[in-house]
Specification:
Layout lengths: L2 H19 L5 H13 L1 H17 L36 H25 L18 E17 L11 E4 L1 E14 L4 E14 L2 E12 L8 E3 L3 E5 L3 E6 L5 E7 L1 E6 L8 E5 L5 E3 L24 H8 L11 E2 L15 E2 L7 E3 L17 E5 L3 E6 L4 E2 L2 E2 L3 E6 L9 E12 L3 E10 L6 E7 L13 E5 L2 E7 L2 E5 L7 E10 L5 E8 L11 E4 L8 E8 L8 E10 L2 H5 L4 E2 L14 E2 L1
Parallel strand pairs: 5-6, 17-33
Antiparallel strand pairs: 1-2, 1-3, 3-4, 4-5, 5-8, 6-7, 7-10, 8-9, 9-12, 10-11, 13-16, 14-32, 15-31, 16-21, 17-20, 18-19, 20-31, 21-30, 22-27, 22-31, 23-24, 23-30, 24-25, 25-26, 27-28, 28-29
């Protein structure tokens, strides 16, 4: 019997089995039931399981409480017999039924065992498929997108804006990356591609393939995840689920409890309770499976579910938490006062980029020394005036610097704070340097200067060159999997990082060197050297700064004197200063002066 034949005959088999249990099966129906048993290993397994369960363990089964069309596991044809509920059809005295059951088991037991073991090629039947034909209901919102990390959508769309609503029966397909969504019931889910997830309702999702983790706060207990053959019912917890290409499911409980039960009508009364303290994992194929992990980029949290703060904001109906802040140039930021005539650092004319964050609003319109557009996330980044400039040896950042804060847990996880679109692409080997000062540094903090060719709110730039601090060490990398580390940075001190992006003979960027607080006159061998010969990038057009997911909101990172040039001497060369002529600032923003 083919998979299609088996799928359509199963409702009829269930009806005939119900009649046999209720002793209302006639001769022709008995022959039909025997034919189905002989032709389907799945029917044989269900038959033996139900005979045993009904006769010896469960004398009267309760009806399933999931009977709406939204939860149907197998589409029924219009002329199919209804599935008979055994609790309404079992007749006779219980003790009489017990001895009859024993006789049935003696008569059919040997034959059933033969049926199951005689054809091993049919024992592993393809899993039932979750129905995907339900029409999307555009007027019924069931979930909202909280954020994403380097996601690639299977339908080819470039991006989906944070706060986008998803509707009942909508299917989310990912090629790669992560998305986090909040269901209207209050539960949160992180989904990792490749994956396919159907949003059945505000309380239920159907995982066709891939893996997810769910966090269910108080009030959202009962949130359910369906797999092709199982139903995972939350009892107030955090759990993970995965479905492989064959439709087999794995479940792991991280906190609390979940109930795992069959989606088959006949076996739905049996369930398995999983708890975090014991029996925390379940595998449908009875194999030892690895832990289910969904880890965000540059985060030590191995189960990167939505934060409770994100879920709370989503329940208000407005996400992200406030009106979306546009990225804009720093021309709107004020200087301390109209009379201030702070000197501006000067860089050699040959540098590719020299940025000291001197406010463009304080420059004469005729000044042409800052052609590259500086774009900031103004909710968490700003240009500030420093009474005492950042300085390393003879390198001075000047009185203006870029101040950035850590991540507010109610906001999206990817915290890009600044990016600069270069006037001309970087097509050759370059050196770079910058000054930094991190206040509030701990072992799970992260920041990096990145080089890439695109920018997006959910882009981590982790597959491009990065340099900065990661998990308590200075680091440099070509991709997230090819990284080097050195030394342990201290909190609340000024540091200087100098890097070198190298190219191979094929003209591709393939290596990065990093010096940590080098001697300005004659730096030694680099402290970090990382190579990755499979890198395909030949140029870079954007540089930027990203703060980590696990940073704290009150973390403060000062960044200054960013230089990109063709030689080591140029990025380490002491610069002079000028006091540019400037018009009075016109900004009405509140003034901010940093010590």
């Amino acid at each position: 019997m083919t998979e299609s034949d088996n799928l359509h005959s199963l409702p009829r088999f269930q009806a005939l089995l119900g009649k046999r249990l209720s002793e209302s099966l006639d001769d022709s129906e008995g022959q039909e039931l025997d034919q189905l048993l002989n032709s389907s290993a799945e029917c044989r397994e269900l038959y033996v399981q139900q005979i045993w369960t009904d006769s010896l363990l469960k004398w009267e089964l309760t009806e399933s409480n999931t009977t709406s069309s939204e939860f149907l596991e197998i589409p029924l044809s219009v002329d199919a017999d209804p599935v008979i509920k055994l609790s309404s059809t079992v007749k006779g005295n219980r003790f009489t039924r017990f001895w009859q059951a024993c006789l049935v088991l003696l008569v059919f037991g040997t034959q059933a065992i033969y049926w199951i073991t005689s054809d091993p090629t049919k024992d592993q039947q393809p899993p039932q498929q979750i129905a995907v034909t339900d029409t999307v209901e555009p007027h019924q919102v069931v979930a909202v997108l909280l954020d994403s990390e380097d996601v690639v959508w299977s339908d080819g769309r470039a991006s989906v804006e944070y706060g986008t609503s998803f509707h009942k029966n909508e299917i989310l397909k990912l090629e790669s990356g992560l998305i986090r969504i909040a269901f209207d019931c209050g539960a949160g889910v992180v989904l990792e591609g490749p994956a396919e997830l159907k949003l059945c309702s505000a309380w239920q999702a159907c995982l066709h393939q891939g893996k997810l983790a769910a966090v269910v706060p108080e009030g959202a207990e009962g949130f359910t995840v369906l797999t092709p053959q199982k139903r995972i019912v939350d009892l107030g917890t955090k759990f993970g689920a995965s479905v492989d290409e064959s439709g087999q499911a794995n479940v792991q409980v991280y906190e609390g409890e979940v109930k795992v039960e069959s989606r088959n009508e006949v076996a739905a009364s049996e369930s398995l309770l999983l708890t975090a303290k014991e029996h925390s994992r379940y595998s449908e194929n009875n194999s030892q499976t690895p832990e289910i992990k969904l880890q965000g980029v540059d985060s030590e949290d191995q189960i990167s579910v939505p934060s409770f703060e994100q879920l709370a904001v989503a329940r208000t109906g407005v996400y992200p938490p406030s009106e979306k802040t546009p990225h804009h140039q720093d021309s709107e930021y004020p200087i301390p006062n109209p009379e201030t005539q702070a000197p501006m650092e000067t860089f050699p004319a040959s540098v590719i980029l020299g940025e000291d964050f001197y406010p463009r609003s304080h420059l004469s319109p005729a000044f042409t020394g800052k052609p590259n557009a500086l774009n900031l996330d103004s909710a968490f980044a700003r240009v500030v005036f420093l009474q005492k400039p950042l300085q390393w040896q003879d390198l001075n950042g000047g009185h203006f610097a870029l101040e950035m804060n850590g991540r507010n847990p109610a906001y999206p996880s990817i915290a890009n704070r600044m990016h600069i679109k270069l006037e001309s692409p970087i097509k050759e080997e370059v050196y770079f340097s910058f000054l930094g000062h991190y206040q509030g540094l701990d072992e799970n903090d992260f920041f990096s200067l990145w080089f890439d060719n695109h920018f997006g709110e959910g882009t981590s730039h982790s597959m491009s060159p990065n340099a900065g601090i990661r998990f308590g060490e200075y680091f440099a990398r070509m991709t997230v999997n090819e990284a080097g580390y050195f030394s342990v940075p201290a909190d609340d001190i000024v540091f200087c990082l100098v890097g070198h992006l190298r190219k191979n003979q094929q003209g591709k960027f393939h290596a990065i060197d990093l010096w940590v607080n080098p001697q300005q006159i004659s730096p030694s061998e680099p402290d970090i050297h990382v190579e990755f010969n499979d890198m395909r990038k030949q140029s870079f057009t954007v540089v930027g700064i990203r703060m980590g997911k696990d940073t704290e909101p009150d973390d403060r990172f000062l960044f200054d004197r960013l230089v990109i040039a063709r030689s080591l001497q140029e990025v380490l060369e002491s610069t002079g200063t000028i006091v540019p002529a400037s018009p009075p600032p016109t900004s009405t923003f509140p003034q901010k002066v940093a010590e």
